[in-house]
């Protein structure tokens, strides 16, 4: 082939096809590096651990809620449309959701084909018009939330079972009570009074015992007969497991995912850590709590028996992404020390329920 021949002619001879292959592969690799990585496929709800989070739990929406309350739903929707390209600020459940996603990344590395991961669903009685701003906010923070349930002013609680919900978090206490009444693990989540840095690589979840993991059987005895009778009762029934409380199933789901790491020899490096933080005293009533967990085939990584001491200082050291308690006294104490705390409205410690309001449901929750 003569030097003066056209380039096209020179490349059309024998060997040109094999020469083109490396160039094509180089171009494809360059393109793949420019293209955003494909997001993982959403698992089937029945195979996953489903966490339903309301919009006001995931994001801060105080100004929007004020507009709804003072000016009505039409002005509220108009405001959201005008600001739909402005992402919401992170709310109290945001660090928890980020930690769930960190666990998912580790699970997918170990089990690429498994759907036994956390699946996060945004559940809100917001109007669909607000959906664009919520989507923009989720994309802004690079969250993997593909499932939305937007009910336009109606309660979303009836949909939670259809999503196979393992835990529902909301800023609306009435919606949380509805979910508890339906047998769904739920809690009202509160922002801490100060910012505390939490782990970016390990999900930490702290639970109270009675009326959270366990039933309120023991708390009823305390209220009716006092602490001395309570200690006698717990000693006498030490080997009788307590009945389950509203969040037992969620601890069970966390334990199932932990075992996936244990089976790979990663117990000490597990990205999920659980804590029992209880006002019980170890010597007088701790054995029954631990034996109850054992009878369920469950455990917590750490068990802290405080014998009535405040929980806030211990939680400040643990720095959980979320702490569940049935008593607002402990929730408030945790908040003051910088812990994201969630109230579980279950059991004898709750105030009498107020009659359901007759006005239209709030636009956000």
TrEMBL record:
The gene is NT5C1A. The lineage of its organism: Eukaryota, Metazoa, Chordata, Craniata, Vertebrata. It holds the Pfam family 5-nucleotidase. GO terms for molecular function: 5'-nucleotidase activity; magnesium ion binding; nucleotide binding. One of its GO terms (biological process) is nucleotide metabolic process. This is Cytosolic 5'-nucleotidase 1A. One of its GO terms (cellular component) is cytosol. Residues 1-48 are annotated as: Disordered. Residues 1-11, 23-35 have a biased composition (Basic and acidic residues).
